[in-house]
């Protein structure tokens, strides 16, 4: 199996706080694209060329132009500051790879559920598994130029509660992908603060430095 290897970008010796975020969603929603667009290193990916043998098991409705697919996971990295590093994992979308998800969720700070509004039902399983694991998440609608839906329509179709952030994005665009991650981090910080308040503790809420994420590293060279 071929895979692209990451650049040897220097990681500070003081980095001792590794934070893990997973990008999940249905088949062909742009998970690899998002990790690739926002990573400060050339992302590791495990893409394989799609063949006719997969036509019987992969639903290509709406993604007929797709020629490759992730068969294990994608991996990228963003340095937040001298001590904190964000690790991004993109999960494969096809049903036959769902058994990998539980392992990828282990130790996860939070998740981005990436959806294609033309195929909202493809994201139901991702949301169900995250809720099963108790993993906080936000939902990001990737722009594929499909029909417009109101926020309420999307929330109803995905059965999202009002406290789950819902944003729009273009996974190809670095700044747009960073905005999605910042939204997730702010959501996690708000949940942490709410838990602390409920526990009537005076300890400060732990939060990922969102300002550092917004200013994180230059755009890497595109993967071959």
From TrEMBL:
InterPro entries: Gliding_Motility_GTPase, Gpn, P-loop_NTPase. Belongs to the GPN-loop GTPase family. Keywords: GTP-binding, Hydrolase, Nucleotide-binding. Transmembrane segments: none annotated. This is ATP/GTP-binding protein. Pfam families: ATP_bind_1 (PF03029). The keyword Hydrolase applies. It comes from the Bacteria. The keyword Hydrolase applies. Gene3D superfamilies: P-loop containing nucleotide triphosphate hydrolases (3.40.50.300).
